[in-house]
Amino acid sequence: MLPFNTVEEAATFMGRNLTVAETLWFNYSAKKSDYFLYCHNILFLFLIFSLVPLPLVLVELMRSLGFDKYKIQPKVSLSLSEMFQCYKDVMRMFVLVVGPLQLVSYPSIKMIGIRTGLPLPSLWEIVAQLTVYFMIEDYTNYWIHRFLHGKWGYEKIHRVHHEYTAPIGFAAPYAHWLEVLILGIPSFLGPAIAPGHMITFWLWIAFRQIEAIETHSGYDFPWTPTRFIPFYGGADYHDYHHYVGGQSQSNFASVFTYCDYIYGTDKGYRFHKKVLKKLKEGSKKGGAENGGSYYYPNQDLKSE
User: Fold this and answer.
1) Cα separations in angstroms, 214 against 163, 173, 210, 231, 246
2) What angle do CA 243, 247, 253 make, to 5 degrees?
3) In 3-state terms, what secondary structure has residue 215?
4) Structure confidence by residue, pLDDT tens digits, 3-13
5) Which residue ranges does UniProt annotate as crossing the membrane (predicted)?
6) Among residues of the chain, what percentage have pLDDT more than 70?
């Protein structure tokens, strides 16, 4: 809740007129508690989990209209009822775990200093903090993900997420309840180390989930703008990890590729891409001349 009754009082306190964005923020948040503002995350996550994957559902249902060439694992096809079942499972976890976790985690947000007042952060401040958040989350998630692919971690927890060997957008948050809690740690570390404004925090939660949905889309679209992000993994990169499944010791990173490269956990993927390239160059009979990546059994389990 802002300590001002009017825009004029806020302007006097700041020594300047409020920007358009700050005026809108004042009008919306002035009489709302910080806790209420924080709980907006529940609504944002619900909308993201429910709406962002919908275009991918339509693409999956319209593969015969030309989208099939972008499918990474084209031999796998899911029906509308199967995709809807995944959504229902995700919503069950949302109601039982994700939502309650948001409700009870507010004290930690206050403790690290996420602010709701004026002035609002500049665009460059938001971009810089989001970059830091993504880097910290990616590095921490990498090691947790490697742990979850150990014998105990995979059998007891992570195997649930790998039930989808050909991932779909709705399956991005599909996981064991304990994995949902554990992977909340990397998401929280960035804001804890470099706390910012509540708006930045909202954007971080939203962008991270949208990114996860994209990497689980199952499609490698050539027009995806994330292709221009340096060291970004993307759908093709993470799809390989799901394809190999429980045996996978490759492509653990959640966002970028540098950790896998540095620690040598992308060798299987790079060998796999090299084999595909040779097959494409050597013969046109394999049907791999399109935007998708066709997988060949057992070849991706080897490395040089």
Assistant:
1) 18, 12, 6, 16, 22
2) 70
3) helix
4) 888 999 989 98
5) 35-59
6) 92
